[in-house]
Amino acid sequence: MSSVRALLSLYRIIYASGIIGGFLISLAGLWFGITTGYWVVLVAAGIALSALFVSLRRRVRELRACRHLPGPKPSFLLGNMGDLLAHGHGGRHRALHELHQTYGPVVRLHLAWGTRPLVSLSYVSPHLHRKELDSLRKADGTVLSRSLMGVPGGDLHRSHRQVLSPALTSRAVADRSRVLQEVSGRYVDRWRRGDGSHEALQSDLRDWSVHCLSAFLFGDDWEEPADWHGYHRALAAIEEEVSFRAFHPFFVRWIFPRRLLRVRAAYQEVAAVLGGVLRRRERRAAAGCPVHREPVDLLDRVARAPWSRKDRVEELMSLVLGGADPMSYVVSQALVMLSLDQEVQERARKAAEETEETGGHGADTGIAQSPDPYIRDIVHETLRLFPPVPFSAKLTEHQAVEEGGMAIPPRTVIMWMKNEVGRNPEIFREADRFNPDRFSAHGKENETVSNFLPFGAGPRHCVGNRLAEQQCATLLAQILKNFHIVPRTDVEVEFHSTISVVPSAVPVRLVAR
Hints:
With 513 residues, this protein is of the alpha+beta class. The chain has 18 helices and eleven strands. Strand 1 (106-109) and strand 2 form a beta hairpin. Helix 1 runs antiparallel to helix 2 and helix 9 (201-218) packs across helix 14. The chain starts with a helix and ends with a strand.
């Protein structure tokens, strides 16, 4: 926490220095222009001084415009950054939980000067589906500005989704589900050969997630980097930097040169790996090659898209970054919940075995191509209780939005806290209980995935949501068929939050059947 206090103090000094310095320099320019007759200096100083006053006045109006909304009192320069970072940078979801407990379902937060005001919701508002509300892409746009993560809504965003979406539909994912089966099978075989303790299970799950995504998205052109651990560190560094920039002042990317150099080096490392994947596909899919006359997988579609090479590489990068940690977190939490509920675990195991016996959608192979619906319900229930991305945000540019009988002014970021939404007892019965049946065909009508939106809402919802669900359900099915999942009480788990939540360990033991 001392590091957070030091960081906030540094931000105050930068803001105060900028205001005082700008004011003094402007006054000096006015005096110099008047005494010497240099009208250019006089005009420039006048413009600078006017801009400073306009900026100050705008901040005051912004603070006043949201006074009617509940929330902690903000400071002029840093807003409520201190409240948001009360549990450290990685504990923002815990800080927001406490704020909702204090102020109710609608909480107003002001971030540092120069950043849009924020309203956090503990429920899913119908307004979040409105097409005119774009997702907040402030931080993503500074790192991955040419991908779906970074581009603003509009023609460019639509063109990217039109290229990617056909390769990530439910049908397209089912057609290539064998890839997920094969990758998951390799990890299950490795765990069966172990001693069952699996101290590195969390690390293995992240490896599995990256391998699954890469093998599915890139096909035979995916080659594991020579420095696999370095590649993982580079992905983590990019995630960390995007997360850091999201809630900090606009100037944060320039005042820490070591962070800037680190993320640039990480970007180059990941771009080199994915650029190599793209080049291999382009060589294989040469013009006139009959095998590649029509796009076969997502990499084919990206390779043929009318984009620059930077656009193509960044889009591949965003797909890997968007799924690696979130899906490993979902599986790790699902394993923990299954270990604590042996009845649900046994039922899921029987469902997985019955699906394998019937062959699912792949009866001619004897391998289940589509995990049992009950296992998919387990994935959804885990997403409800443990959303890997704790919050999503939309912004309103021109129109006010009404929530809880209160008007949220334009130019405000509207964020829904998925942790709070998923555990809201007004939406979900026995909200803290792990109950996959709530998402079954016979579950309560209003207990649906749309009530907590783990993959976002509207035109900017996660393009890979079907792949993510299938990927997690496939591995869980294979684990259930091969292991008993036993809880461990001797493992201490710490959680770190970047784009998604990352646990330090998985407190379970996989006992081979």
